[in-house]
Specification:
CATH architecture of the largest domain: Orthogonal Bundle
Distance between the termini: 32 Å
Catalytic activity: L-threonyl-[protein] + ATP = O-phospho-L-threonyl-[protein] + ADP + H(+); L-seryl-[protein] + ATP = O-phospho-L-seryl-[protein] + ADP + H(+)
Radius of gyration: 46 Å
Family: Belongs to the protein kinase superfamily. Ser/Thr protein kinase family.
Number of domains: 4
Strand content: 25-35%
Shape: elongated
Helix content: 10-25%
GO molecular function, one term: ATP binding
GO biological process, one term: response to other organism
CATH class of the largest domain: Mainly Alpha
Oligomer: single chain
Membrane topology: Single-pass type I membrane protein
Number of helices: 15
CATH superfamily of the largest domain: Transferase(Phosphotransferase) domain 1
Number of strands: 47
Length: about 775
């Protein structure tokens, strides 16, 4: 039976569904626990993990939403992908981007390096300290705190470098910032280029936040927009404490302590991620969120703002448009400044202060500054503010609060939508193709399961004018042909025109119907038929492997495993005819010439020209006036006068064929043993005498494989003799024959009575093995 769908089409549809519904499945991932010197390497997209699995270090795709070939060398929260540290380019300060063929390795000298593909593997990044390059590294580990440590030095147990000492834009619980350490913001939440803001613990003891002047002629940071007010205290250290959660504090050189944040009460710190990040908008935020979710911001609110904490709206909100307006493009037309009167603000995060400006000029300055969310105008002073912290409503105040809000939606990024539409169209086309293919295949399958009607002209053309004769039997000639519309195209056409049995119209239709019902791996399938005028033809599959008669007649005996499989296959085919069809079918002419092999050497039973349907009330009383069969494969009951003929005639014929398979001799061939009886049908008596005499090895002519399986050979021989019993009731059914051949049922000992001589006397009246139609008797088919 043909498959309903091509495997290639099914795989294409599954691939498209994976792309549309599960793009993350396309990213290969694997994990290790550490890297050791002298051979260990790491290549994209691989990584190592911390013992708890909370953190990962290695190659992370630059854009996790696409099949990117660019990677960051970074540390991130494993379950939500938030990056907390990344390797930077020493000259630009931006993230180091590695290609898909880059290699991270620890050399035998203990130097960890990231190299790019190409000639001589140019160095992309290698960690360095205040004392120069980091050497003598024995192994690299990632702790459960998210701290990446290079262990080595004297004794191989010292920490020679750690990521906690060289932060990028994020602090983790347990991490501290010594004097001279700084955080540098990124350009955007999804970007890793250098941003405009820095958070610095200065050597003078002050903790400050600067907005970097990005002009080409700038020499460094300008006016700080926030400070801790601890200038000149000296040796200030900032700490991020894990207990209590989200607690940032600093200690001055004299031991005094100051708090930057208020501790947040949590049921347990183990179930939460915590990190403090200098965000792209210049605000230093502390994040706390459950480990089972990747969300870190609230839902969108009106005017393009989101709440810092969706559970507590009084903590304030941030504008969602800031990253868009700071992407280097002119977005002035997308915003406007609205006046919010009667409000006085005493605490805010101001980036710039302008003096001697008008209100209109103040509006203009805020609109053209990507960092400005609100402008506070008071008199002739204008402050660009990123975040309002504390204030109150006050009638009559001179302060004007100018809030920047959107006037229209931001420009739509078309590329993602184009890709989605293209994939949707591709999926639609594929689905339509599958439906059409399914319809065509279903139609072909219906034709496959049924029977096709051919014209005489079609079959004449297919057989080249009936010129390629394959064989001739009592029920017509068989020709080889080619029908190009079939797959495979080769067919065997049986012409019943010379048949001596006269078919009536209805009888021929019944014959076609019975044959068309047969679909089994050990039966030759009938493809169709021709009933045009006086022409009556059947079209079958063409078998390329020859007949069983040819196989037995070879000078070199086939191996036993092949013969045994052929015997079981033939038995299963007959079992299907007798018990598997809707209406029982008796073959009536089982012989080696009617058993063919396909291109995979599977035996197939053919020649159903004389098969009759049993079970139909109109057929049970049919009188058959011609004995059809081939000596010596005809069962004795055919010669008993008016008798009942049933499926046991096929069992008898199979017994003869099974003996021929075992001995590789034809039933009429004289055995080489001089002690064998010389009768018309000596094979059964010769085999039985060898089995009873304990000389079963003579059956296989010293074939090596068969000698190794003599138990199987003897079992097959005893089954054949049981099939050849004169009394049909003592013969096994084909189902039991299959079970005995496969070893599922024990075979009884040989019966005592020998084969009656009367049958030999009848059969000895002639030695012609051709089909006989001269014996006319009446038999009731039961």
């Amino acid at each position: 039976m043909r498959p309903l769908m091509s495997p290639a089409i099914v795989h294409l549809a599954m691939f498209l569904h994976v792309i549309l519904l599960h793009p993350s499945m396309l990213l290969a991932q694997t994990s290790r626990n550490n890297l050791t010197a002298g051979g260990d390497t790491l290549i994209p997209p691989y990584y190592i993990t911390s013992p708890s699995g909370d953190f990962a270090f290695g190659f992370r795709p630059l854009d996790s939403k696409s099949n990117s070939s660019s990677f960051l060398l970074a540390i991130w929260f494993f379950f939500d992908g938030t990056v907390v540290w990344f390797a930077t380019d020493a000259s630009s300060g931006s993230a180091m981007v590695a290609a898909g063929q880059s290699v991270l390795s620890v050399s035998t000298t203990g130097q960890l390096s990231l190299s790019s593909p190409g000639e001589n593997n140019p160095l992309l990044w290698s960690p360095s300290s205040d004392h120069g390059p980091v050497l003598d590294v024995s192994h690299v580990v990632l702790n459960d705190t998210g701290n990446l440590q290079f262990v080595g030095g004297a004794g191989g147990s010292s920490v020679v470098w750690e990521s906690f000492q060289y932060p990028t834009d994020t602090l983790l619980p347990g991490q501290s910032m010594l004097p001279g350490t700084k955080l540098q913001s990124r350009s955007a939440d999804t970007g890793f280029s250098l941003g405009q803001f820095s958070f610095i613990v200065q050597g003078d003891g002050n903790i400050v936040m600067y907005k970097m002047n990005t002009a080409a002629d700038s020499g460094g940071p300008v006016n700080a927009y926030w400070s801790s007010g601890t200038c000149c205290a000296g040796n200030t250290t900032l700490f991020f404490d894990v207990n209590p959660p989200a607690y940032l504090y600093f200690i001055l050189s004299d031991g005094s302590r100051g708090n930057l944040t208020t501790p947040q009460p949590l049921p347990s710190t183990a179930g939460f991620y915590q990190h403090a990040t200098l965000d792209p908008d210049g605000l230093f935020r502390v994040y706390i969120r459950p480990k089972n979710t990747g969300s870190k911001k609230g839902n969108d609110t009106a005017c393009g703002y989101v709440f810092l904490d969706s559970q507590n709206r009084y903590k304030g909100c941030i504008p969602t448009f800031l990253p868009d307006s700071c992407d280097g493009k002119n977005h002035t037309a997308e915003f406007e400044v609205q006046d919010s009167p009667s409000a006085n603000w005493v605490s805010s995060v101001s980036y710039k202060m302008h003096t001697f400006v008008t209100e209109e000029h103040c509006r203009h300055l805020c609109l053209n500054s990507c960092s400005c969310a609100v402008a506070l105008f008071n008199g002739n002073n204008c402050s660009e503010v990123g975040m309002l912290v504390a204030g109150w409503q006050e009638n009559g105040t001179t302060m004007r609060t100018l809030v920047k809000v959107r006037t229209k939606s931001p420009p739509v990024q078309m590329l993602p939508y184009i890709l989605i539409v293209a994939l949707a169209v591709l999926l639609l086309v594929t689905t339509c193709t599958l439906l059409v293919h399914c319809y065509i295949t279903k139609k072909a399958r219906k034709n496959y399961l049924g029977t096709r009607v051919f014209t005489h002209k079609e079959l004449c053309r297919a057989t080249n004018g009936f010129s390629n004769l394959l064989g001739e039997g009592g029920f017509g000639k068989v020709y080889r042909g080619t029908v190009k519309s079939l797959q495979p195209p080769e067919v065997a056409v049986k012409d019943l025109g010379g048949c001596k049995v006269e078919y009536k119209e209805k009888e021929f239709e019944n014959e076609v119907r019975s044959t068309g019902q047969i679909h089994h791996k050990n039966l030759v399938r009938m493809i169709g038929y021709c009933k045009e005028g006086v022409h009556r033809m059947l079209v079958f599959e063409y078998m390329q492997g020859g007949t069983l008669a040819d196989t037995i007649a070879r000078s070199e005996r086939p191996c036993w495993s092949f013969l045994a499989e052929a015997a079981v296959g033939i038995a299963k085919g007959l079992e299907y005819l007798h018990e598997g069809c809707k209406s029982k079918i008796i073959h009536c002419d089982i012989k080696p010439d009617n058993i063919l092999f396909d291109d995979k050497h599977i035996p197939r039973i053919t020649d159903f020209g004389i098969a009759k349907l049993l079970g139909d009330q109109k057929t049970q009383k049919t009188v058959i006036n011609t004995i059809v069969g081939t000596k010596p494969y005809i069962a004795p009951e055919w010669f008993d006068g008016v008798g009942k003929v049933d499926s046991k005639v096929d069992v008898y014929s199979f017994g003869v064929v099974l003996l021929e398979i075992i001995c590789c001799k034809r039933a009429t061939e004289q055995p080489t043993d001089a002690q064998a009886p010389s009768t018309m049908f000596p094979l059964r008596a010769w085999v039985e005498s060898l089995i009873r005499g304990g000389n079963a090895e003579l059956l296989v002519q010293e074939e090596i494989e068969a000698l190794a399986y003599m138990e199987s050979v003897e079992r097959f021989a005893r089954i054949a003799i049981w099939c050849l019993q004169k009394d049909p009731s003592t013969r096994p059914t084909m189902r039991k024959v299959v079970q005995m051949l496969e070893g599922e049922v024990e075979v009884d000992f040989l019966p005592d009575p020998p084969m009656p001589s009367g049958l030999s006397a009848v059969l000895s009246s002639g030695s012609d093995t051709r089909h006989s139609s001269s014996m006319v008797h009446a038999f009731q088919v039961e």
